[in-house]
Amino acid sequence: KERGRETVKHVPFVPSPQGTGGEGQGSGRGSALFGYIGIDTIIEQMRKKTMKTGFDFNIMVVGQSGLGKSTLVNTLFKSQVSRRSTSWSRDEKIPKTVEIKSVSHVIEEGGVKMKLTVIDTPGFGDQINNENCWEPISKYINEQYEKFLKEEVNIARKKRIPDTRVHCCLYFISPTGHSLRQLDIEFMKHLSRVVNIIPVIAKSDTLTLDEKTEFKQKVRKELEACGIECYPQKEFDEDMEDKSDNDKIREAMPFAVVGSDKEYQANAKRILGRKTPWGVVEVENPNHCEFSLLRDFMIRSHLQDLKEVTHNIHYETYRAKRLNDNGGLHPISSSGQDTQESNL
Question: Could you tell me which residues belong to the region Disordered (predicted)?
Answer without folding.
Answer: 1-28, 324-344
